Structures are given as structure tokens and as C-alpha cells.
Amino acid sequence: VKGLCLVRHGETEFNRESRIGGNPRLTDKGIQQARSLAARFRDKHISCVVTSTLRRTREMADILLEGRPEVERHALREFDEINAGECDSMTYDEVRRLRPGIWESRKTDKYHAPYPGGESYASMKDRVERGVKKALYLSGNAENLVIIGHQAVNRMILSHFLFRREEDVPYVFIPQDRYFHIVSTQSRKLVELLPFQS
Ligand code: F6P
């Protein structure tokens, strides 16, 4: 690895049920995805792995770092998934049926629409940016840094490096079996989407 590898956690039971938020663990498939990533990174130098404080990203790091005690790891609250407030643990379908106002506002302006008692993409931006700065500092400036985050958080992190238009950010595709490899210097900006499975 050279630069930053931006990984989303593997599958959870909540993903399977299209359920929002919570603190679920990886499913067997999620564990398998983590093992594929570990195999892919086996011979690569990693200086530092940064996760959120939630189980699904920490379990991913546990598997990635099995047998690699020398690699530094940190868990940052700044990288926890978007706080869905009153909708936490609901399925998207439940939000649509039971909280139609929220559903509509997210459809109209997903970037700015806040979850009552929680966050919007716009309001999580500052803390995610703070997390990026901390992670870059912890890794000695993104040399061989791996961040394991979440769908909304990874969209924000990507937009930090790519300067995407705000209204596009909530729709960036963040797969669970591929990672973004990002090199971002003054003179060179490169983003590749690479499979876990080599
Ligand atoms: O579905 C998984 C998840 O990480 C949820 O916890 C989170 O609310 C969601 O993705 C963010 O994506 P979107 O803004 O598209 O609902």
C-alpha cells in the first residue's frame, strides 16, 4: 500500500435487512470479505489502521491485522457512521412508511436533510474532516494508511480528497468488497477502486 486505502466494513445483518445504523457485527459473508482483504494486503506494508469505534469496522481490522501485531491501530469516534437519530435501527422501508417527512426530505436534498436527533451529511462533515486530519497525523501523512469506515463516512472522506459537489456526495457508490486507493499530493491525484480478492 502506498497512500491511503479507504475500506468499508464487510456485510452485517443490518446491511442484509437494509437496516440503518445500530452496532451490528459482521455476518459470515462479512468475515469472508475481511479475509479476502487480509489476503490481498498480506505482503503489503501497512503503517497504520484507523477504524471507527463501532464493532463492524473493528472486527474488520481484527481480521486484517491477524498475525501483524506490529501495525498500529486506532479507533476514532469521528469515523462513526452518520447518526440516524430517531431512525436508528429502522429499515429504509420503515422510514418511508412511518417517517414519510424524513424520507421525502432526504429524497429532495439528501446532503442537508438531518435525521431528527441525529445528523445530516452536511452536519457530519466537520467531525469527519477532523478524523481525516487525525488519521493523517497518526500515520505520518498517509503513507500506507488504511481507514476502515462506513458508507456515509467514506463518502465524506472521498469527497475530502476529490472535492465532489455536495449534492453528489450522498450518492457515491461505496461497495463492501472493493476499496478505494487514494494518492493525493500537490502534483498527483489518483483514485482507483480495487477488489479485495486479488
Ligand atoms: O446502510 C448502512 C449505512 O451505513 C447506515 O447505517 C447509514 O445510515 C447509511 O448506510 C448511509 O447511507 P445513506 O445516506 O445512503 O442512507
TrEMBL record:
Binding-site residues for substrate, renumbered to this chain: R8, H9, G10, E11, T12, E13, F14, N15, R56
Protein name as annotated: 6-phosphofructokinase
Organism of this sequence: Oceanidesulfovibrio indonesiensis
Highest classification ranks of the organism: Bacteria, Pseudomonadati, Thermodesulfobacteriota, Desulfovibrionia, Desulfovibrionales
Full-protein interval shown: 230 to 427 of 427
